[in-house]
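Supplementary Methods. Inverse-folding protocol.

Structures were first reduced to a discrete structure-token string of length 279. This string, shown here, constituted the complete conditioning input.
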């Protein structure tokens, strides 16, 4: 396994989740990043490792308070992870006593802030240009030429949003896996299935690229808020039920803001034997 200066005494981590979307958090501030594709796959194995939907590695800020890198459980990199960003924002604000944070990701610089006892994160403006989402060719992003008439939205990750009449009847695993690697998406895609209950409430289920079905997806929730408003089905401020609970989205002029529950589950250490670190 490729490693990057993993301490001989093991590697500390935190386990957190946001509405059931679960994460391993590594803190590499003051040192070189340690995560590699091999390490992400090992830790992401729910039988032989820890298990996660995504891994987030905190690094020293680059003109920001902190930087964040995201990894999927198959060892691939994720461009954005909204619920992990909320979790890390909550950690950092509790650690510092501040009520706002700036976070650099491959998505750009994101903002987090406390409003009462809720952590809100701005995941940025949606990407609505075909070659930046990206999709394979110049098509109408609000009506992709695929069965089910999905909407394409970029939120750091590509998303295909399907509006359905009865979400309980959708085979999320089969349809999600098929759409994830459709030729329309050269970098693969996350896939969301959405039942609109009213103009301010929806139900979503999600298939995440590189991971599979998850209980929530922050960037996917933001994509759904954008797609619903574009289609004229919802307002720009909505509540969303996901498999793991409830999220709240607000598409403003400065980006798509999101909030929801955050839970710090436990702290632990990956052992040297697991990591293969020589004594």
């Amino acid at each position: 396994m490729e490693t990057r200066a993993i301490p001989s005494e093991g590697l500390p981590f935190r386990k957190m989740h946001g509405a059931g979307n679960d994460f391993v958090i590594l803190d590499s501030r003051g040192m070189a990043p340690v995560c590699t594709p091999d390490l992400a796959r090992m830790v992401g194995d729910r039988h032989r490792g820890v298990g996660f939907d995504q891994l987030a590695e905190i690094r020293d800020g680059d003109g920001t308070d902190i930087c964040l890198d995201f990894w999927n459980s198959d060892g691939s990199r994720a461009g954005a992870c909204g619920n992990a960003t909320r979790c890390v924002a909550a950690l950092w604000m509790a650690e510092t006593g501040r009520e706002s944070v700036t976070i650099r990701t491959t998505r750009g610089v994101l903002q987090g802030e406390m409003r009462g006892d809720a952590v809100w994160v701005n995941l940025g403006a949606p990407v609505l240009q075909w070659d930046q989402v990206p999709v394979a060719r110049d098509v109408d992003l609000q009506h992709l030429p695929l069965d089910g008439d999905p909407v394409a939205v970029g939120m750091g990750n590509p998303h295909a949003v399907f509006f359905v009449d009865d979400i309980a009847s959708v085979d999320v695993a089969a349809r999600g896996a098929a759409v994830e690697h459709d030729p329309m998406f050269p970098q693969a895609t996350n896939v969301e299935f959405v039942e609109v209950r009213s103009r301010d409430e929806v139900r979503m289920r999600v298939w995440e690229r590189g991971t599979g079905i998850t209980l929530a997806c922050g960037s996917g929730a933001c994509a759904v808020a954008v797609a619903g408003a574009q289609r004229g089905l919802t307002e720009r401020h909505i509540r969303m039920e996901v498999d793991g609970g409830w999220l709240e989205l607000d598409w403003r002029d400065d980006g798509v803001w999101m909030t929801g529950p955050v839970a710090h589950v436990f702290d632990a250490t990956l052992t040297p034997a697991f990591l293969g670190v020589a004594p």
